[in-house]
Amino acid sequence: MRRILVTSALPNANGAIHLGHLFEHILTDIWVRFQRMMGNECYYVCADDAHGTATMLAAERLGTTAEAMIESLRAEHADEFGRFHVDHDNYYSTHSAENERLTRAIYERLAEDGRTFTADVEQLYDPERKLFLADRFVKGTCPRCGADDQYGDNCQVCGATYDATELGNPRSTLSDNTPELRSSDHYFFDLAQFTDFLREWTASDAVQPEVANKLGEWLTGGLKAWDISRDGPYFGFTIPGTEGKYFYVWMDAPVGYMASFENLCDRTEGLDPDDFWRADSDAEVHHFIGKDIINFHCLFWPAVLRGAGHRTPTKVHTHGFVTVDGAKMSKSRGTFINASTYLEHLDPEYLRYYFATKLAANTDDVDIQLDDFVQRVNSDLVGKVVNIASRCAGFIHRGFDGVLAEGMHDEELWAAASNARHELADLYERGDVGRAVRQITALADRTNQYIAEHEPWKHVNDPERRDEVQGVCSLGINVFRTLVVYLKPILPAMAAKAEAFLKVEPLAWEDAAEPLVAHGVDRFKPLFTRIDRKDVDKVVAATVAEAETADDGNAGSPEVRIDDFGKIDLRIAKVLDANFVDGADKLLELRLDLGDNQRTVFAGVREAYDPNALVGRLVVVVANLAPRKMRFGTSEGMVLAAGPGGEDIFLLSPDEGAEPGMRVT
Predict the structure, then answer these.
(1) Which residues face 579 on adjacent strands?
(2) What phi, psi does 347 have (nearest 5°)?
(3) Which of 68-77, 182-191, 561-570, 590-599 has the lowest mean pLDDT?
(4) Residues facing 46 on adjacent strands
(5) Spatial separation of the C-alpha atoms in residues 337 and 665, rounded to whole Å
(6) Strand ranges (DSSP E) for 259-320?
(7) Who's near 500: CB < 8 A, 6+ residues apart?
(8) How far apart are CA 278 and CA 261, in angstroms?
């Protein structure tokens, strides 16, 4: 018996579970369920990836603490995965006492052995928000092609990659300020020390061949030290012996696998984490990840484990990206589908089955085609597999009191179905589940053809052919049972219903070796109904509606009370002057008369209004908004406008007779 620990990549703690997460966790769950059916001791743990600046800022926007936000989302994520029958033994959080202790211990071991060092790093700093800016929080001009409004790590126009400090005219997306270049001591993990070890490890069976080739390119180019620290404010664990220095999220996130398993072990008698993580362990550790994070899991993580005296992963199973109808998942097209939205309209096992048809043992991208989704479920699953039992069960009950025949009517067909377990087991083990599903449906095709050729419905009332009818239908049900065995890792809920119909204990893989003879079965109840394409369309429509709501700024916004709204001081103002703002595509600089004072306000209406046409116009302004320092100057209020954006922005117009300084109620 093998002892196996399995993980999936950690979902981020500040977002919803979507198709991409579901694909990875379902494919992992299929592999785990297969191992358990084979009689192996297999544990599946995961956690929310909780740390980072983004988590801190998301909690700030929601008006709550990071701890409260991540725990709420962790519970939500665990529930949604469970509703898709993903059977985690433990779904935890990287923000845990176990993870902090383990991360610190690993770091201290690395530091003691000379695997870490400190160096001065120059970074962009937002003086208003008082934090160093991650690449995602900086925009500016691409240093390669000159395109404006590009993020701090790569250009969406020319594809160039660069450091945020190379951007032209950089600005903070958090405050719209021009960031400052500041120096800070950072802590590094000296990855290059492990080059020889990584060459050997990546050339083993620990990764797929195409992944090994990619890793080989990085190894040949020379490994750089990894920055494992971040300056505060930051939501995470402090580095031992420092103040205001935190472990970068990618330092403690993979340790979260160990922490989640340790948390499980603390609640499970006889289970010891050291049996799986010590250097000489004969247990197995398998990680399932997407190809976008192979550098973290196949270079950084095994080197950290090696340096800290732990075992390295047995295998890292890497899959490709998920697209829908040939394109990236899109909220506006309704294909960036959240788990909760899907569950409102469709059975989760439909998606499990369709994902299974797409699973291969390589890193090719996986395209979810909505028409194909409907066709595969209706034709293959309902029309072929389930159809066998629904065709045969009625005859067995009406004519033979629900009891199966004492032998196999066609030994060749039975042998084909039973012996398929060997090759199918190999395919499941390798992760080539799509090929396994094709072989399973081919068996279903052959069985349906066999039943059609013998036409039991024509002979059920013929006394001389009663044995033949019972034999044909009994064999059909026995082949159906083997198909249930083979599909059980994919469709656990359907398998449980089938086990009740067959009156058998939970099926293991080797149960496909022996048929049920002279065995009573229950009355058959439908296991699935066909998908209506209209239900798929409802999922798409609901996703589009969610995107529109989010674009309106309503999603995730904290509620305000009427007394909060009453604090806003809306005043009539007259535009005295209006000018373009150099370096800003959307802003106009407005000088406003509020009756008793004048203000300067930067308004994002440049695409919709000629500045000359605004002079003398009355507008509505938020007069008690705190001044906001921008790289163009200080904005002393906010002009109210409405519309979807671009040229379709409309300034609010006060009633005739209004005068500067009048309050709007």
Answers:
(1) 589
(2) -70, 130
(3) 561-570
(4) 91
(5) 41
(6) 284-290, 315-319
(7) 522
(8) 13
Q: Where are the beta strands (DSSP E) in 282-421?
A: 284-290, 315-319, 322-324, 327-328, 366-368
pTM: 0.82
d(CA 142, CA 548): 30
The DSSP code sequence of 114-131 is T-EEEEEEEEEEETTTTE
The 10 Å Cβ neighbour count of residue 270 is 6
For 150, residues 6+ apart whose C-beta sits below 8 A from its C-beta are: 139, 140, 141, 142, 156, 157, 167
Longest dimension (CA), the chain: 107
Helix (H) or strand (E) segment spanning residue 252: helix 249-252
> At 557, is the pLDDT very low, low, confident or very high (cuts 50, 70, 90)?
very low
Q: Rg of the Cα trace of the chain?
A: 31
d(CA 183, CA 665): 49
What's the rounded Cα separation, in Å, for the pair 444 and 387? 9
Q: How many CB atoms lie within 10 A of CB 335?
A: 21
CB atoms within 10 A of CB 375: 15
pLDDT surpassing 60 at residue 366: yes
Query: How far is residue 340 CA from its own chain's centroid?
Result: 13
Instruction: For residue 4, give the 3-state DSSP assignment.
Output: strand
Sign of the dihedral through C-alpha 611, 615, 620, 625: positive
Which among 439, 495, 449 has a CA at the least distance from the CA of 472?
449
Of 226, 319, 262, 334, nearest to 98 (Cα)? 262
Report the distance separating Cα 176 and Cα 632, nearest Å: 9
Strands 284-290 and 3-8: parallel
| Residue 584 confidence class, pLDDT cut points 50, 70, 90 | low
Tokens, residue 80: 């949604």
* Cα–chain center distance at 599: 46
Instruction: Report the pLDDT value the prediction gives residue 205, as an integer from 0 to 100.
Output: 93
In angstroms, the CA 68 to CA 7 distance is: 25
